[in-house]
Structure formats: C-alpha cells, structure tokens
Write a structure and sequence with these properties.
The protein is 9% helix and 36% strand. By secondary structure, the protein is mostly beta strands. The chain has a 7-stranded antiparallel sheet, with helices on one face. Strands 4-9-6-7 form a 4-stranded antiparallel sheet, with no helix packed on it.
Length: 167
C-alpha cells in the first residue's frame, strides 16, 4: 500500500441523518440507507443500511445475481430461510448471503426485527427508493400499501435475480 496515494472519503452518519423509505407489503416497516458509495470516493462500490420489519411481516423470497449481502441483527428475532433451509436469528447474529442464494426474512417474533445490511457492490438503495415511500425519522408508520405494479421491472433494473426463470 502506498502512502503517496490520495486518501479516500470519510462519512459519519448520525441517527436521523440517513435516507429512509417506508416499505410496501409484505415487508411493511422501513429501510434506511446509511451510506451509499455512489455519493463518495470509494475503491469498491457498496451500500450499507438498516431495515426494520414488524411482527408478522416478512421480506419476500428473492436472490441477488450480481451482489453479495451481509446482515447483522440488532434487535428482535426471526427466521431467515436460505435456499429452503431455516436459520433462527437474534441480536448478534450475522448472516452472509453469497450471490444467487434465495432468501427470505420472516419476523415470527413478537417485536420488531431490525438489522444492518451491507450490500456489495451496492444498488439495494435504488430498489428501496423506487418501491418505497419517503420516510422521516420518528414519523408514524403509514397504513400498509401495495408494491408498485411494475415491481418486477424495478427488480430486474436494480439488484434482483429473476426467480421466475429458475427451474
């Protein structure tokens, strides 16, 4: 490593200083984009955020064909199914999803399930913005709302594998 090379950016994000989006059914809850490398100088593109899913809600089955993802569970408990295998998660659990791993997140607990997500090479933030509604920190949750009619097009244009093409 050369110390003569220019230095990369620094970003500090405080509570309430991120972009947030209310999420449609079946996830409900919200997603926050804490850092998006498209907004700064970064050697490797990535994004990091936080997501909350209320009791009884879930993130539907999906896969990322061009990215890898890591979750770190902050609060609550639930089940993450990866390629059909169930894994219980609770605060302190860390989960890595390699590309093309089908996964769903189910809040089968009695409190909000919240995690931090790391997404490489980035792009998940665009999906949340396109399917969600803007959220301000601390505001009450809206009534559940449907996913956009063109969600499949949005998924293909962002970071999701087309599961309909899988055998």
């Amino acid at each position: 490593m050369s110390f003569d090379a220019p230095q990369g950016d620094v970003r500090v994000v405080h509570e309430g200083g991120s972009r947030g989006y209310w999420q449609p059914v079946p996830a409900n809850g919200y997603a926050e984009v804490l850092i998006d490398s498209s907004e700064l100088q970064s050697v490797h593109p990535f994004s990091i955020g936080r997501q909350l899913v209320p009791p009884g809600a879930r993130v539907r089955l999906h896969a990322h064909d061009r990215a890898e993802e890591v979750f770190y569970i902050l609060k609550g408990s639930g089940t993450i199914e990866i390629d059909g295998q169930a894994h219980r998660v609770a605060p302190g659990s860390t989960v890595f999803f390699g590309h093309n791993r089908q996964h769903t997140i189910i809040n089968d607990g009695d409190e909000d399930l919240q995690w931090v997500w790391f997404f490489l090479p980035g792009g998940l933030e665009e999906f949340f913005a396109r399917i969600g509604r803007p959220r301000a920190a601390g505001e009450p949750a809206p009534a559940p709302f449907p996913r956009p009619a063109d969600v499949a097009t949005i998924e293909r244009a962002t970071v999701f594998a087309d599961l309909s093409a899988k055998p």
